[in-house]
Amino acid sequence: MKIGFIGLGNMGNPMAANLAKAGHDVTGFDMADVDVAGVTMAASGAEAAESAEIVITMLPNGIILRAVGDEIIPAMQSGAVWIDCSTVDVDSARAVADQAKAAGILAVDAPVSGGIGGAAAGTLTFMAGGSDAAFAKAAPLFDIMGQKAVHCGESGAGQAAKICNNMILGVTMIATCEAFALADKLGLDRQKMFDVVSTSSGYSWTMNAYCPAPGVGPESPADNDYQPGFAAELMLKDLRLSQQAAESSDADTPMGQAATALYEQFVEAEGGLGKDFSAMLPRFEKRGRS
Amino acid sequence: MKIGFIGLGNMGNPMAANLAKAGHDVTGFDMADVDVAGVTMAASGAEAAESAEIVITMLPNGIILRAVGDEIIPAMQSGAVWIDCSTVDVDSARAVADQAKAAGILAVDAPVSGGIGGAAAGTLTFMAGGSDAAFAKAAPLFDIMGQKAVHCGESGAGQAAKICNNMILGVTMIATCEAFALADKLGLDRQKMFDVVSTSSGYSWTMNAYCPAPGVGPESPADNDYQPGFAAELMLKDLRLSQQAAESSDADTPMGQAATALYEQFVEAEGGLGKDFSAMLPRFEKRGRS
User: Fold this and answer.
1) What's the CA gap between A109 and A69, in Å, rounded?
2) How far apart are the first and last CA of chain A?
3) Residue B204 and residue A167 in contact, taking contact as beta carbons nearer than 8 Å
4) Could you say which of A61, A161, B68, B211 has the lowest number of CB atoms within 10 Å?
5) B258–A256 CB contact, under 8 Å
C-alpha cells in the first residue's frame, strides 16, 4: 500500500519505519532533515501525500495540524484516508476532519498512548475517531504500529478519549505521590503502602503499573532516576488540552485544573522539565504543607 | 474465646454477630439499646471489657475512642488484646495504644474497608498497626470478620494506610466523575470512555470496579440510584482525617485538600448527604465551568 507519512520526530520516525518494515511503500516528509529506515523522503508534505492511498500525520499541535491540512488536503486523492496520530485539541481535530471530508477524504483522528518505547516496539494503543469506513481502512495499519485500537466514535472522539484518560492519569499520579509523601511523614513503610493500596480501593495504573516510589512495585521510571518514560512536559501538554476542551465545552473540571497548575509549576519553576511525570513524588517529599 | 465488643452500630453489630456465630463468647456494649444475635449485653464498656481476652471497639471518632480507652484500659486484664476497628485520626490511635501498652495490654489499630455489606458478609479488609505479637493474636478474629488483613507496621500504621488509601480514592473518584462529564460534553459515548480508560493508563478501582456511570461497567451504586455503598459523608470523614494528619505531620496534599473541599460542599450544600460518594457524577453533569 502507498503510504505518505508526515512528521518524523521521536514518535513518527519509528512508526513509519515499522510500516516500511511490514512491506508498505512509505514516502515521508519532515521539516527537519531526517532519515527513516526503509522510507523514501519527499520534498514537501504535498508531495508525500499526493499519490498515497493513506496519509499519516504525527505533529506537535493543532496549529501545525491545521497548516499541514491546508497543504495536503488539496493534494490528496479523493477516497484516500488521512489518519492523524497527533495529540491535539478536539476543535482542531474536528475542523481538519470536516475539511478533509468535504474533499472526499476519509478522516480518522487517532492519538496514541505508549510513548517512544511503544512506537519503536509497535505496541502503541490508538484511540480513534471517524466513520466506520474510515476506521476499517485504518485498522490494518494500527495493527502494525500498535497492539490495540479502540474506535471511540465520530471525528474528534479519539482526541476526547485521550485527554479524558490523561486528565484522570495526571490527577491520579499527583494524588498517589502526595499520599506516598504523607505516608512517609506518618511513618508508614512504602512497601506496606503499596501492598495495601495496590490491592484496595485506591488502586490505579499509577500505583500498580507505574509506581512512583523507587524500589516498590514493578520496574518504572522511578527506578531509573525518573528518566522518562512519559515526560512531565508531555503530561502538562495533555492536561492543558483537557482544560482547553473543558473551557470550550463549559465543563467543570476542578481536579484537572488543579493538576494542570501543579504540573505547570513543576515543569516551569521546579526543575520538572525533562523528568518523568512520576517525579512529582520527590517534589512532594521535599515540601511542607503550603 | 471471651470477647468484649464495644460499639454495636451499623458496622459493629454484624461484626460481633459473626464472632458469636463462629462460637466465641461475646459480651457487647453500646450507648444505644441494641440487640445483637448471639451476644450477651453488658451494662457498661468496663463490664464488657473486664473479663475479656480480647476487646474490640468500633467507634465513630477519636474523641469517643479516647473516652472509651479511659474507661476500659483500667478494667482490662494485663496481657489482654485491644483491637480498635474504628477509623480515627492517627494521633488518637497512637495515644490510646500507648496508654494501653503502659497498662500491659496489646494494642492493634485495625480500621476496615468494605462497608456495611462487607461487615455482614464477613468480607472486610483490615489495615492493622501494632506489634507482631498483638497482630498474631488478632489475626484469627480478622479471619472471621473479614477476608484480608494487612499488617502495616507499628501502632497508627493501620490508620495511616487507610487514610492514605482513601485520600487517593476520593481524589480519583472526583477525577473520574469530572472526566465522564467532560466526555459527555465532548460527545464521547460513556461506554467507549469506559472501554478506553478501564484498559489504559487512567484505570483505577473507581473506574473499573465501581464505575460512577449508570449502566456502564460492573454493577455499582450508580445502577441503584446512588444509594450507598460508601456514603459521601463517610468519604468526607476520611478525607478530613487525611487533612488532619497532613496538617499535624506538615505534609503538602493539594489534591486531598481539593477533594475534601468538594465533598464538603457536596455533602453540606448540594444534597450529597446520604448518597453514595460516586454521586459526584450527576453533580458534575449539571454544572458548567465555575
Assistant:
1) 13
2) 58
3) no
4) A61
5) no
Q: How far is CA B98 from CA B57, B61, B95, B226, in A?
A: 16, 18, 5, 41
| Mean pLDDT score across all residues of chain B | 97
Q: What is the tens place of the pLDDT at every residue in A23-55?
A: 999 999 999 999 999 999 999 999 999 999 999
C-alpha B123 chain-centroid distance: 13
Q: Identify any residues that bridge with B231 across adjacent strands, giving them in sequence order.
A: B276
Q: Measured in whole angstroms, how far is the alpha carbon of residue A162 from the centre of its chain?
A: 7
A238-288 residue pLDDT tens: 999 999 999 999 999 999 999 999 999 999 999 999 999 999 999 999 888
* DSSP 8-state symbol, B42: P
B162, B192, B237, B275: the active-site residue: B162
Residues in a beta bridge with B125: B113, B148
Say which of B186, B199, B284 has its CB closest to residue A245.
B186
- Residues of A designated catalytic: 162
CA dist., res. A14 & res. A110, Å (int): 16
C-alpha–C-alpha distance, residues B280 and B258, integer Å: 14
- Tell me whether strands B2-6 and B25-29 are parallel, antiparallel or unpaired: parallel
B185 is an active site residue: no
Distance (Å, whole) CA A242 – CA A193: 30
Q: Give the cell for residue A26.
A: 512509505
| Residue A250: Cβ-neighbour burial (10 angstroms; 0-12, 13-18, 19+) | exposed
- Give the whole-angstrom CA distance, residue B235 versus residue B239: 6
Burial of B242 (0-12, 13-18, 19+ CB in 10 A): buried
- Closest Cβ–Cβ partner in A189, A253, A288 for B252: A288
DSSP string, A101-121: HHTT-EEEE--EESHHHHHHH
Q: How far apart are CA A90 and CA A245, in angstroms?
A: 7
Asked if residue B183 lies in contact with residue A160, where contact means CB atoms within 8 angstroms, the answer is yes
All three cell numbers of A182: 504523607
Evaluate the omega torsion of the peptide bond into residue B229 and state whether it is cis, within 30 degrees of 0: yes
Q: Give the residue from A73, A84, A15 showing the smallest Cα distance to A45.
A: A73
Q: A198 to chain B: which residues are within 8 Å by CB?
A: none
Helices A157-185 and B232-248 cross at an angle (nearest 10°) of: 50
Residue type, position B84, single letter: D
Pairing of strands B112-113, B124-129: antiparallel
Burial of A51 (0-12, 13-18, 19+ CB in 10 A): middle
| Single-letter amino acid code for the residue at A156 | G
Residues 6+ apart with CB under 8 A from B14: B116, B119, B120
| B175 neighbors A164 (Cβ within 8 angstroms) | no
Count CB pairs under 8 A between chains A and B. Answer: 270
Q: How confident is the model at residue B287 (pLDDT cuts 50, 70, 90)?
A: confident
CB atoms near residue A288 (< 10 Å): 9
Q: Please state the rounded mean pLDDT for residues A153-173.
A: 98
How near does any CA of chain B get to the CA of A197, in Å?
6
The partner residue sitting opposite A178, judged by closest CB among B161, B169, B255, is B255
